[in-house]
């Protein structure tokens, strides 16, 4: 055979993966082949591919993983993509060598790294070589942690990612999961049955919907491979290539239709409303990408653009659980703040918070340390940060939502704002408890009502605005978007200096 | 049997739906008062209310069954 013909043949064989085997082709049902995913993900053909011929000696095309450099939106990215048709996408020795070398390359080039995961996990017959030593599967996680915050790391979970492999999504910045296809669990249903006697389906144990709504491992639930790829391309558009750059500011376009926000935000502080309507009104049209929309919904975290500039929004949603802070909502917001701060994305906090949840069940579950985690993420953030008091701003919740003492660049308030350590009911109960008890029963209600009214009159936005250290400006809601755009434009010229230390001791 | 649970601890302020009424996904079945906020208890199924298991003024925990659907 001609040597050049031989090259074509070898490359062709490796590139088709395991699709010629009937068994492997079955694993592809309802999914795209790895190279078709790459075609959709990248603007064009990849610039180059490494390790196409790895595993050829063992008859495993590309050793079950495709590693390429290509472009998304005109910017270079590195992609590590499992091929489920090649030995079920499992990790062998060459697989982890290819993966770790590509992680290092992405870091050296300071470009985003995207993991397209669809893998049955570790190749147990290669464990001797791959499990224990210094050069082993675990290096993949070591690299993910080392490069976290330096370059964006995205995970698109198209299929299984069992046991140890489940840490690949867990250590990425964002995880996009395909409904009914993606799964992640430490022990399979069969192993769970054997070890602890529990009967559970794969979907209940580690399905995409479970992870996106309950465990919080998943960030965005999608219905198809194509949709996952679309979300990933869109997500990256908000990010710079690395921590050393700022995100691109796209051309600003005016809103097609102005929403009258005086009609959106209820004046009655106890009446819930959907804060997503406010976010849509403040953001450029079509620019809202919600992260974890199904998880801890009392807190909304979303990437948006304002005047073309990417901004990360953290907002209390009174429509769900009154917008009260819980453990999961604290975790959700803290992680989102770390994400934005790592990649120079300014932050916007929309406060409407009656506080952290109280009671014995949340105390046992550690609400104080979870709340402290959010507070520490807020206080650590050095990107431009603006807080808007929309309605309630009570107690510790106000601080966790980037209140003035946590040093935001600006603390703005709407006329609907009600800042106070506690609301009138709790305040009167605390301040006059003994006095109320001493009053004759018949006089108590009137006394309480009068004191609540007096206290309520004092928790007014203008008594806050009288202190220029508490509120920079009281803004009409319909003027808020333009005010924010002008302020971010100014604050983005600030340089944030971190002072030297090894690492903060984070509450978790 | 499908049921609708309390999303958080609080006091039942208002029962909105009665047995025999039909509900859709997202419909408010009852309203709690908790943390000084009105907290709607929304149905996560569609169906007909068979039974309301709480009354106004009851203190409920997260996960307390508020209603059963037929």
Report on this model:
The complex is a heterodimer of chains A (508) and B (70). Chain A has 508 residues and is an alpha/beta fold. Helix content of chain A is 38%, strand content 16%. Chain A contains 21 helices and 15 strands. Chain A has helices at 3-15, 22-27, 34-41, 93-109, 127-130, 139-147, 167-170, 189-196, 202-206, 208-215, 225-236, 275-282, 327-342, 360-364, 367-380, 395-400, 424-431, 433-438, 441-458, 461-465, 480-491; strands at residues 48-50, 65-72, 75-82, 113-117, 153-157, 174-178, 220-222, 289-291, 299-306, 309-316, 347-353, 385-394, 410-413, 418-420, 473-474. In chain A, strands 8, 9, 10, 11, 12, 13, 14 and 15 form an eight-stranded mixed sheet that branches. Chain A has a seven-stranded mixed sheet with strand order 1-2-3-4-5-6-7, sandwiched between helices. In chain A, helix 4 (93-109) runs parallel beside helix 6 (139-147), helix 13 packs parallel to helix 15 (367-380) and helix 17 packs across helix 19. Chain A is elongated. Chain A starts with a helix and ends in a 17-residue tail after the last helix. In chain B, a hairpin with a 2-residue loop joins strand 4 and strand 5. Chain B has a single domain, classed as RNA polymerase II/Efflux pump adaptor protein, barrel-sandwich hybrid domain (OB fold (Dihydrolipoamide Acetyltransferase, E2P)), CATH 2.40.50.100. The mean pLDDT of chain B is 93. In chain B, the strands form two sheets. In chain B, strands 1-8-6-3 form a four-stranded antiparallel sheet, with no helix packed on it. A four-stranded antiparallel sheet of chain B has the order 5-4-2-7, with no helix packed on it. The radius of gyration of chain B is 11 Å and the shape is globular. Chain B has 70 residues and is mainly β. Chain B starts with a strand and ends with a strand. Helix content of chain B is 0%, strand content 53%. The interface between A and B is medium-sized, with 20 and 12 residues.
């Amino acid at each position: 055979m001609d040597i050049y013909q031989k090259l074509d043949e070898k490359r062709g064989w490796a590139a088709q993966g395991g699709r010629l085997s009937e068994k492997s082709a079955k694993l592809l049902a309802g999914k795209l082949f790895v190279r078709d995913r790459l075609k959709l993900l990248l603007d064009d053909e990849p610039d180059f591919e490494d390790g196409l011929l790895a595993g050829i000696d063992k008859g495993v095309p590309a050793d079950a993983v495709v590693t390429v450099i290509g472009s998304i939106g005109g910017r270079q990215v590195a992609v590590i993509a499992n091929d489920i048709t090649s030995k079920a996408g499992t990790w062998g020795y060459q697989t982890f060598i290819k993966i770790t070398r590509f992680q290092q390359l992405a870091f050296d080039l300071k470009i985003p790294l995207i993991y397209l995961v669809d893998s049955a996990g570790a190749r147990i017959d290669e464990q001797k070589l791959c499990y224990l030593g210094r050069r082993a599967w675990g290096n993949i996680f070591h690299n993910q942690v080392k490069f976290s915050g330096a370059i964006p790391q995205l995970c698109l979970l198209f299929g299984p990612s069992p046991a140890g492999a489940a840490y690949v999504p867990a250590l990425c910045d964002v995880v996009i999961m395909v409904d009914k296809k993606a799964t992640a669990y430490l022990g399979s249903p069969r192993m769970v049955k054997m070890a602890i006697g529990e009967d559970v389906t794969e979907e209940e144990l580690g399905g995409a919907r479970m992870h996106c709504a309950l465990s919080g491992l998943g960030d965005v639930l999608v219905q198809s491979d194509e949709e996952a790829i679309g979300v990933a391309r869109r997500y990256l558009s908000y990010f710079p290539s690395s921590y050393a750059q700022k995100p691109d500011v796209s051309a600003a376009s005016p809103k097609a239709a102005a929403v009258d926000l005086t009609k959106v935000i209820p004046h009655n502080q106890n009446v819930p409303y959907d804060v997503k309507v406010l976010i849509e009104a403040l953001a450029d049209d079509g620019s809202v990408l919600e992260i974890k929309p199904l998880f801890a919904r009392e807190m909304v975290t979303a990437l948006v653009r304002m005047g073309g500039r990417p901004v990360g929004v953290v907002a209390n949603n009174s429509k769900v659980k009154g917008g009260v802070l819980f453990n999961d909502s604290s975790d959700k917001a803290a992680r989102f703040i770390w994400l934005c701060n790592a990649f120079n994305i300014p932050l916007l906090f929309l406060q409407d918070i009656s506080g952290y949840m109280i009671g014995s069940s949340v105390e046992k579950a550690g609400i104080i340390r979870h709340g402290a985690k959010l507070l520490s993420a807020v206080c650590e953030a050095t990107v431009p940060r603006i807080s808007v008091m929309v309605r309630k701003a009570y107690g510790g919740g106000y601080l966790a939502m980037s209140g003035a003492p946590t040093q935001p660049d600006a603390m703005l308030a709407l006329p609907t704002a009600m800042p106070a350590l506690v609301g009138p009911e709790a305040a009167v109960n605390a301040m006059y408890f003994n006095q109320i008890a001493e009053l004759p029963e018949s006089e108590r209600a009137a006394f309480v009502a009068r004191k609540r009214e007096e206290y309520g009159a004092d928790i007014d936005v203008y008594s806050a605005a009288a202190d220029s250290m508490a509120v920079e400006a009281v803004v009409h809601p319909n003027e808020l978007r333009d005010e924010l755009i002008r302020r971010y434009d100014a604050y983005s010229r600030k340089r944030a200096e971190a002072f030297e230390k090894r690492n903060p001791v984070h509450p978790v | 049997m499908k049921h609708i649970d309390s999303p958080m601890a609080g006091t039942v302020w208002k029962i909105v739906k009665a047995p025999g009424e039909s509900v859709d996904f997202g419909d408010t079945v009852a309203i709690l008062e908790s943390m000084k906020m009105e907290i709607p208890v929304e149905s996560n199924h569609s169906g007909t209310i068979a039974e309301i298991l709480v009354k106004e003024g009851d203190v409920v925990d997260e996960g307390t069954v508020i209603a059963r659907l037929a």
